[in-house]
Design a protein that fits this description.
Blueprint: E1 2-4, E2 7-12, E3 16-19, H1 25-33, E4 38-40, E5 49-53, E6 65-69, E7 75-77, H2 82-86, E8 90-92
Antiparallel strand pairs: 1-2, 2-3, 4-8, 5-6, 6-7
Length: 94
């Protein structure tokens, strides 16, 4: 654990630095819309991270969508499960 600016942080080779404080799904959505990457502490695989993709004029997609970086390092569209939406273990990748 690292102390920076009075906040406890966790050092993890897959996530970089993450705040130790957990949050709910609404907070995670807000962070995604702000351009941050988020993950759940309770996910089984190391390195899984969500990010919001906002299409550009060069994109084949026409609306924003959330994608996940998988354990294998692939990027695929993501949909929240009931468990994901109801958990309070969301964190921001620093």
């Amino acid at each position: 654990m690292i102390q920076r600016d009075g906040k406890a942080e966790m050092a993890n080779h897959d996530y970089g630095k993450a705040e130790m404080e957990n949050h709910d799904f609404g907070w995670a959505i807000h962070k995604l819309k702000s351009g941050d990457r988020v993950f759940r502490e309770g996910w089984n695989g190391d390195g899984q991270v969500l990010e919001l993709q906002v299409p550009t004029e060069y994109s084949k997609m026409t609306l924003p969508y959330i994608f996940i970086k998988t354990v294998q390092g692939d990027f695929v569209p993501w949909m929240a499960s009931q468990t994901d939406m109801l958990q309070n273990d969301w964190r921001k990748v620093e």
